Amino acid sequence: MRMKRWISSSLRTKLLALFIVLTTIPLMTVGMISYQKSYHSVASHSKASTMLQADMLGTNIDNLFIDTERLLELSNNPEVIHFLLSQSETYKEAKDILRTFSLYRDTYKYESVLNISLINLYGKGISERRGIFQSNTNPLRNQHFQTLAENPDSVLRIPSAQMNSLDQIDGFTYEDRGVISIMAAVKQKITHEVIGFITVDLDDSFIKTFCDQVKIGKTGFFYILDQHNDPIFVSPIGNDNRNIIQNTPLPFPDQSSRDGYVLRTGGQPRFIVHTASIATGWTIIGMAPLQEIVAEANSIRQLIILSVVLSIVFAITLHYLLTKRLTRPIQLLQHKMRLTASGYLEAKVKPVGTDEIADLGQSFNIMVEKIKELLEQSIRKQQQLQKAELRTLQAQINPHFLYNTLDSIIWMAEAGKNDGVIQLVKALSDLFRISLNKGRDWVMIRTELAHANSYLVIQQMRYRDILEYRIEIDPELLDYPILNMTLQPLIENALYHGIKNKRGKGLIVIGGYLELSSVILTVTDNGIGIPTDRLALLRQQLEQPLQSEEEEPAEGGFGLQNVHQRLRLYFGSEYGVDLESIAGAGTTIFVRIPKNRGN
């Protein structure tokens, strides 16, 4: 209903709606059809390309293992069988076996084979790298040899991820590379009894290189699962890929199948392809975010959206040209009036022509100028009023402070403490030099702290037995601006109304910290504190306008209210002074001022 009223509100709106409908609906229909076709085309192409890469890796793995497992024929060699059956060996027998190893290498060019080793059930063995050796452990303690002893016709293919130190039967480790160990049982020809085991170690670098370098999209990757669906090769670019695998449960396919699909469970959709290595029973899986696979289709979608937007812009432009001379002047004047009503007084109308609308626009401009002049006069008067009130508040502070300071000087002079009087007068001189501040209302926090320190030095000389103080301000706060004479009245209040009425030593601590866009300064004393009812009264007085001298607030309220009103005049109602106190324990005064505000 609201949309209908908006469309029928003016002729220009009706034309705009008509142009948009006639332009965008046909284009969006064609765009949706094009996007669907491009999406399916790009997805099919990506699936075929990724599947081809996975098949290539599976074929390479199969060829490598089929070719390498020819070395298992060594288990049928009479010299090998004799070596495994005999309790002793000769140098010639060992040399003949190693020569046989070398013959196989020269014949089949096994560049990926790192080592060939044989071992019998009693731990006697021979390998290319160590020659003849005697194992210190029973070979059947090796879980893989134990499996072969129970299944003599099996061939095991064990990657590095599933090997441990006990699996290295000849004591040799490959610290700088990964290996895949092919293991098989050696059987006696007549009885087919297991007499030993043969192990061929392969360099797995070509599989790792494929998993590390071949990507699907930008962040997709390949990994390999063994017969038990446990990951054995994953790109080592961090634990991110392993976390993705763990958090993306797959419906594990038949290990002899190959397919590709989109998995939409567990977070963002992912594109999955899988194929199998027939020789090893391993599964090669490729995984990538679906968004990356169909990135080209998304580009087409963005192009379609851009075309629709451009069509809308074209319709609006055409609509503008057609209606400009009919309704534009009235709408422009209406718009400027609304801006003026919202408070923007810089809105001006440029009259065109000499008709009634142009005359109305000229009158509108004159009215706005008159309103601006009246507002500027009001603002100037308000600023002058605030400045006058501020100067009055400042004048109220200075005599109040001077009375107390001169009282301290008189007391020390009467006591005959000349050195103390000199020190006190010097501190008073520094105090007034800083407080005058060449007539400026602003100082840096470091200057205000120096002023407070001079005041505390004077008061500590007077109240040496009851007053201690500390200034604990983060150096980061020292260069922020603050109103002059902000802290001294608060310190004076803490001394006269908190510590002076307490037995024993009193302590005043000046602190500060940053809080979001504000600077918070604190004046804390361990004096007698403020009772709950009186604290509520003081907080209520802080929210009231400053009273005259004849109507001075209750004890302890004048300095607080004075500082609070000064801060509010300059910074606004969200800044000023706040109190927290516990009767008998002390009081903390918080001063909140804006951060990074220039003077």
Automatic annotation (TrEMBL):
Range of residues in the leader sequence: none
Subcellular location: Cell membrane
Histidine kinase domain boundaries: 483-597
EC number: 2.7.13.3
Bilayer topology: Multi-pass membrane protein
Residues annotated as transmembrane: 303-322
InterPro entries: HAMP_dom (IPR003660), HATPase_C_sf (IPR036890), HATPase_dom (IPR003594), His_kinase_dom (IPR005467), HptR (IPR051552), Sig_transdc_His_kin-like_C (IPR004358), Sig_transdc_His_kin_internal (IPR010559)
Gene3D superfamilies, per database record: 1.10.287.130, Histidine kinase-like ATPase, C-terminal domain (3.30.565.10), PAS domain (3.30.450.20)
Keyword Transmembrane helix carried by entry: yes
Catalysed reaction, written as an equation: ATP + protein L-histidine = ADP + protein N-phospho-L-histidine
Pfam families (UniProt xref): HAMP (PF00672), HATPase_c (PF02518), His_kinase (PF06580)
Keywords: ATP-binding, Cell membrane, Kinase, Membrane, Nucleotide-binding, Phosphoprotein, Transferase, Transmembrane, Transmembrane helix, Two-component regulatory system
Domain HAMP: 324-376
GO molecular function, one term: kinase activity
Entry keyword Kinase: yes
The protein's name: histidine kinase
